[in-house]
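Sat 14:20. Reprocessing the chain from the morning session after the first attempt stalled halfway. Input below, unchanged.
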Amino acid sequence: MPNDDPSTSSGENFLPKEPLDSSSPAQPQVQANNTNQVRTLLSWSAPGRPFHKRSKEYYLTSLLIVIFVEVILFLFSQYLLMVVVLSLVFVSFALATVAPKDFHYRLSTEGVTVEDHFYLWQELYDFYFKKRGNTQVLHLRTHAFIPGELTITLGDMDKEHVKTVLLPYLPYREVIKPTFTEKSGDWLARNFPLERS
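Finished this time. Tokens:
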């Protein structure tokens, strides 16, 4: 005998015929998680700053210039400036004598890691390369005033390879106008070298 109850016949139309498969929605979720994982794009170790071993001529010439400046400052009774000049010379001699330790650098899909410091891509502005002596240096400029710029030595890394990794995340600045300080330093190094190259 057929069921004349309209509520049961219409209710059967809305019920699912087969049980829902709980495994099917989980697969796309796992794939989405895989695409959102942090991946290391590039990592290397290199000295923390550009370093060039200086000759005895460099130290001797620097000492002669410092003695000359100290005598002039003494004649004008600028004792505080004498101490400042001596401290700057001490720091420059220490940096020229002691080789820097190797730092570990890592570029990931989230940002840049320099030793224990991490910078998100959103905190960085752009990048460019500059050669200091025989060392290729990567400069990453930050939005924040401090640190303002990260200088990363490339060591054995290829500059073009690093550029291709960075381009999807940061704009590349091809030309950087040198500042007045850089121009002055280059002019002094060119016209009054402290050592023969």
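The radius of gyration is 31 Å.
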